[in-house]
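Folds abound. A case:
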Amino acid sequence: MSLTKIDTDELYPTEKLGPAVEGTIIYKVGEQTHFKGAYITTSERMIMNVDMNGESYKRVFSYQDIVRAIIENNTLFIEFPQGMGKVAMIDVTEGDINEFVEYVNQKVG
């Protein structure tokens, strides 16, 4: 199951899909820290789609809620304002992280 695929019915009428990446998102929830997940960009927003123990969890971010996207040592980081901080994605298995970072930074800039 690819987490980068979303139903086009979920998009706004004028919204277009952008680059997407899938890998392992590192974020602490209880005792678990590694989740298979994806970031899917659109012309309007970024969607995080995570497999949380077999259950799909989606969270939508406005580009205004993102500081920037960066790559450090083959790790993708999405930097959010205070509170969430930086969220890392390692072991990218689908998508081009360079294209993704460039797209996100154009939207937040």
About this structure: The two ends are 32 Å apart (CA to CA). The domain at 8-108 is CATH 2.30.29.30 (PH-domain like).
